[in-house]
């Protein structure tokens, strides 16, 4: 059966995660949370350190960043704006072998509809996009009767690049 004939092989955006890592709690972390809330109208979640790093005075469990997850139409609209900032160009290095991709935006003031706030200063953020196929993932995530996903159902790097080119008109260099 041809890939185009099977509707379950259609690639979709599962979620978009926006991340700002500041390295420590305090005013910078609060500014990062404020910025994420302005960008998405969602309440951000603090990210915690997973390991101890004495060089940067970080203990395991310290809040060191903030993130927000977007799904469905909200995610697609945000991705269009974010790609506009990148001038619809991404590198092949932005894609991993499972078809997900991410890129950074150096300064939030480049983002459409957001103005500079002197209280926040200049902060950049990461945009991480997770892709999935239409069907089959439920078997991997359920508690009872869990099974593996076949290799044919996984998304390759080339398929992800083709999806982004076709759906959003992105040039991959």
Structural commentary:
This protein is α+β, with helices and mostly antiparallel strands. The chain has one domain: 2-Layer Sandwich (50s Ribosomal Protein L5, Chain: A), CATH 3.30.1440.10. It contains four helices and seven strands. The strands form two sheets. The chain has a five-stranded antiparallel sheet, with helices on one face. The chain has a two-stranded parallel sheet with strand order 4-7. The mean pLDDT is 87.
Annotate the secondary structure layout.
Layout (H helix, E strand, L loop, with lengths): L10 E11 L5 H14 L4 E4 L14 E8 L1 H14 L3 E2 L10 E5 L19 E9 L3 H5 L15 H12 L2 E2 L1
Parallel strand pairs: 4-7
Antiparallel strand pairs: 1-3, 1-6, 2-3, 5-6
Shape assignment:
globular
Distance between the termini: 31 Å
Summed up, the domain count is 1
The count of strands amounts to 7
Question: Averaging pLDDT over every residue, what do you get?
Answer: 87
- What is the spatial order of strands in the main beta sheet? 2-3-1-6-5
Class by SSE composition: alpha+beta
Q: What string, H for helix and E for strand, traces the elements in order?
A: EHEEHEEEHHE
**CATH level-four homologous superfamily name:** Ribosomal protein L5
- Range of strand content: 15-25%
Supply the CATH architecture: 2-Layer Sandwich
CATH class (first level) name: Alpha Beta
- C-alpha-based Rg, rounded: 18 Å
Uncertain segments of ≥5 residues (pLDDT<50)?
Answer: none
The amount of helix comes to 25-40%
* Main beta-sheet annotation: 5 strands, antiparallel
Number of helices: 4
CATH topology: 50s Ribosomal Protein L5, Chain: A
């Amino acid at each position: 059966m041809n890939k185009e004939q099977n509707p379950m092989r259609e690639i979709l955006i599962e979620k978009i995660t926006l991340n700002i890592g500041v390295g420590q709690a305090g005013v910078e972390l609060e500014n990062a949370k404020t910025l994420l809330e302005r960008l998405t109208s969602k309440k951000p979640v603090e990210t915690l350190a997973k390991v101890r790093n004495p060089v940067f005075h970080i203990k395991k469990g310290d809040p060191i960043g903030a993130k927000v997850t977007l799904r469905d139409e909200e995610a697609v609209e945000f991705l269009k704006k974010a790609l506009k900032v990148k001038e619809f160009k991404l590198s092949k290095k932005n894609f991993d072998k499972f078809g997900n991709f991410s890129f950074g935006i150096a300064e939030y003031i480049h983002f459409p509809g957001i103005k500079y706030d002197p209280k926040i200063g200049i902060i950049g953020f990461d945009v991480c996009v997770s892709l999935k196929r239409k069907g089959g993932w439920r078997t991997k995530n359920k508690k009872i009767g869990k099974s593996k996903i076949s290799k044919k159902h996984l998304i390759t790097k080339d398929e992800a690049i083709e999806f982004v080119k076709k759906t959003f008109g992105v040039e991959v260099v």
